[in-house]
Amino acid sequence: MKVLVVGANGQIGKQLVTLLQASDEFSVRALVRTEEQVKAFDKIEVETVFGNLEETVEQLEVAVKGCDAVVFTAGSGGKTGYDKTLLIDLDGAVKMMEAAKNAGVERFVMVSALQAHHRENWNEQIKPYYVAKHYADRVLVDSGLTYTIIRPGGLLNEAGTGKITVGENLERGTIAREDVANTIFASLKEKNVFNKSFDLVSGETSILEAVRSL
Q1: Can 147 be counted among the known catalytic residues?
Q2: pTM over cut 0.85
Q3: How far is it, in rounded angstroms, from Cα 73 to Cα 141?
Q4: Chain-centroid distance, C-alpha 193
Q5: pLDDT tens-digit profile of 58-79?
Q6: Among 100, 111, 131, 199, which is most exposed with the fewest C-beta within 10 angstroms?
Q7: Residue 95: CB partners within 8 Å, gap ≥ 6?
Q8: Largest Cα span, the chain
Q9: Is 153 helix (H, G, I), strand (E, B) or coil?
Q10: Which of 129, 130, 135, 147 is catalytic?
Q11: DSSP codes joined into one string, 12-68
Q12: 127-141 vs 93-102: helix axis angle to the nearest 10?
């Protein structure tokens, strides 16, 4: 299975690319925006393709063509305005879905946010971010793609434990980015999470066991 990682230069994306590159089951293509990113991925022999989520669907279609799955782990980041949140986290995500469908790619894994599906539980300080995630997720569910929506809690830059908790509705919690990357990896071919959405935080269950319990 060849996987296009959108957001490959992000903290979760980089870890996922490394996992896919080391696997015998997958090959990986990283969506990048700069020559510096190309050089960094060249060092670990990862295929790259130029693309920008503010481009047209047709341009993004070129980037995804020949792949079997898309993982969307891109984000506008906390340093941009909410205009970029709208353009990247919502419109960029939807355009990537359209590009995948046009290119005949059926599998799409979305990295969302904990409780993005319940408006009453959104963090008021970053409410526009939750709006973007909420509606991108809804479009994906209705897209006809074979989706998995992963909604992680607060992201931590620390070593993963390899143990998680998953569920439709979880209390607020945190999780290491490494564990998020490993959960995405486990979810790509696990049919148990096809066309499912779930919250994700640290826990006491091994990643594969937790994914298979859904």
Answers
A1: no
A2: yes
A3: 17
A4: 14
A5: 999 999 999 999 999 998 876 7
A6: 131
A7: 53, 55, 56, 57, 60
A8: 45
A9: coil
A10: 129
A11: HHHHHHHHHHH-SS-EEEEEESSHHHHHHHHHTT-EEEE--TTS-HHHHHHHHTT-S
A12: 20
